[in-house]
Design goal:
Strand order of the largest sheet: 3-2-1-4-5-6-7
Distance between the termini: 39 Å
CATH topology of the largest domain: Rossmann fold
Strand content: 15-25%
Oligomer: single chain
CATH architecture of the largest domain: 3-Layer(aba) Sandwich
Largest sheet: 7 strands, parallel
Shape: globular
Length: 400
């Protein structure tokens, strides 16, 4: 059985739980270690007690840098009681730093770098971007594999900008389904006169989307409602709870368990909000968010923005509703005459696709674990060179 040490930046991230479940379903033994950025009982994993390396905070880059430097120093002691892994999977750049140290500690254990989100600082053309890309290139220099979730990340970042030259494995953010399941999304039957409902589930971090949906639902005077679920990035909003509480047609229903709760929460909505303006022109244009797969699997039509990778995915499958831009007038005009006949036609197209484009099953999990297992190196490789200082230069940057 392949033994994987999974190093993560946020133990409370539900996506970490999904990846652990995937690794286990693929036949691996998982040891989980990382930082904590808050409490989230929905991210707990049965049978696994994570090794906590410290506490970090969203949008505080300098604080995270210091936390990682401290964790590097303490890592040999923290890892002393763990059996030697066969592979180390490092989620995000900060954990790639720790992965290199852990690899040296255990004796040149192979590393896979999981990068599912390209931070805007990595794309800067000035000193900050160059320093971070050099750090990624150095700490990922011995990585045997890069795991990412969108073809656009490969095209726009890993090939032209990243210094890592490892093979790239595309692993989309599909819904994890480990048991028997229907092979067709559910057909929808809407009550007469019911308002249309848009679901915005997952990471809620886009203030522009929230403002747009607030204005849209008011303009439509209750014909459309919005249901929010997941983890709001409170730092990105002046007063998230206050904004939602003041809106007559928007409600926030809190966190949920993924994948266990997906069928129930998507059954309550007609559309999936698959638009993100958080890092316009960069990460938001390139990513393929969880919600487009979740909505596709459970019969909710995606609303996408032209020119994005999400819109290209929807167009490839012939589904969804694409907006030319993010203006209120565009959204309002698109849905001003939208009715039941249009919805049934679009939903029939989605149902006809089946669930395969949207899910990962046990065979997919096993294939991913097999890909990680192929990284195992023959014994006797030389130890890695010593680590340089993590904070060689003082970097003045705007924190996320």
């Amino acid at each position: 059985m392949l033994r994987v040490l999974y190093l993560v930046h946020d133990l409370s991230d539900p996506a970490v739980r999904r990846r652990v479940l995937m690794l286990q379903a693929g036949g691996s033994e998982v040891m989980l270690a990382g930082f904590r950025r808050g409490e989230n009982r929905f991210a707990d994993i049965e049978s696994i007690t994570p090794l906590e390396l410290g506490t970090t905070a969203d949008a505080r880059f300098a604080q995270r840098l210091v936390a990682v430097a401290g964790a590097v120093a303490r890592l040999p002691l923290k890892l002393a009681g763990l059996p030697q892994p066969d592979v180390i999977l490092a989620r995000n750049l900060e954990m790639l730093v720790l992965a290199r140290r852990a690899s040296a500690h255990f004796g040149a254990v192979p590393i896979a770098y999981e990068c599912l989100d390209v931070h805007r600082l990595m794309l800067k053309t000035g000193a900050v971007g160059r320093v971070l890309r050099r750090a990624e290139s150095y700490f990922g220099g011995n990585a045997g594999l890069v795991v990412t979730s969108s073809p656009a990340f490969i095209e726009h970042y890993f090939k032209p900008l990243s210094g890592i030259r490892a093979p790239i494995h595309l692993l989309e953010n599909r819904v994890l389904e480990l048991g028997s399941h229907d092979t067709r999304p559910p057909e929808r039957a809407r009550p007469d006169g019911a308002p249309w409902r848009i679901g915005w589930f997952g990471a809620i971090r886009c203030r522009k989307s929230l403002d747009l949906l607030c204005a849209f639902t008011r303009r439509m005077e209750g014909r459309f409602e919005v249901v929010l679920r997941g983890r709001p990035a409170y730092r990105e909003f002046d007063d998230f709870d206050g904004i939602v509480n003041r809106e007559p047609f928007i409600r926030f229903e809190g966190p949920y368990r993924n994948p266990e709760d997906l069928s129930a929460i998507y059954a309550e909505v007609d559309f999936t909000w698959a638009i993100d303006f958080f890092e316009e022109g960069q990460n938001s244009q390139w990513l393929l968010p969880n919600r487009i797969y979740e909505g596709g699997r459970h019969g909710a039509l995606p609303i996408v923005l032209d020119g994005t990778e999400t819109a290209r995915l929807a167009a490839r499958h012939g589904i969804g509703i694409a907006l030319a831009d993010g203006r209120l007038e565009t959204l309002t005009e698109r849905f001003a005459t939208f009715g039941e006949d249009a919805y049934r036609a679009l939903n029939a197209r989605l149902v006809a696709l089946g669930t395969r484009p949207w899910v990962l099953d046990r065979a997919d999990c096993a294939a991913f674990v097999q890909r990680l297992g192929a990284l195992r190196q023959p014994a006797g490789l030389a130890a890695l060179p010593p680590l340089p200082s993590l904070i060689a230069n003082k970097v003045d940057c705007h924190e996320r």
